[in-house]
Amino acid sequence: MPRPLSQRLHDEDGVALIIALMAMMLLMALGIALVLTTTTETRISANYREGTEALYAADAAVERVMDDILTVPDWNDILSGVRQSAFIDGAAGGTRSIAARRRRAMTAI
């Protein structure tokens, strides 16, 4: 026979299950937040590393070009195309491989 409504409202049957489910949801939310934070931090550090590599590569290229240009007595020869840099390794287009990393397509500007 079913119990009356007033008696069922005062019973605490199943409260522990609800509290355990709520605690599990809270821990799951904290875990998801931790995973998202870790993923974001990893991406940020990868972007910073790649940006730093690009900066150092550009700085090295400027130093290399400045060394090459400073040895030329007349810059008009370089500007007119009569004289080429020793830094040229082929045509301006095509695909280059840099130190066994990702292949990048180089296009002429």
Describe, in short, the structure shown.
It is built from 3 helices and 2 strands, in the order H-H-H-E-E. By secondary structure, it is mainly alpha-helical. The protein has a two-stranded antiparallel sheet.
Task: Return the structural class.
Answer: mainly alpha
**What gross morphology would you assign?**
rod-shaped
User: In what range is the share of β-strand residues?
Assistant: 5-15%
Arrangement of strands in the largest sheet: 1-2
Enumerate the spans where pLDDT stays under 50 for 5 or more consecutive residues: none
Defining key terms:
single chain, 109 residues, mainly alpha, two-stranded antiparallel ribbon, 3 helices, 62% helix, rod-shaped
Give the secondary structure arrangement, pairings included.
Elements: H1 5-10, H2 15-70, H3 75-80, E1 94-97, E2 103-106
Antiparallel strand pairs: 1-2
Describe this structure in words.
The protein is mainly α. Helices cover 62% and strands 7% of the residues. A hairpin with a 5-residue loop joins β1 and β2 (103-106). The chain starts with a helix and ends with a strand. The mean pLDDT is 82.
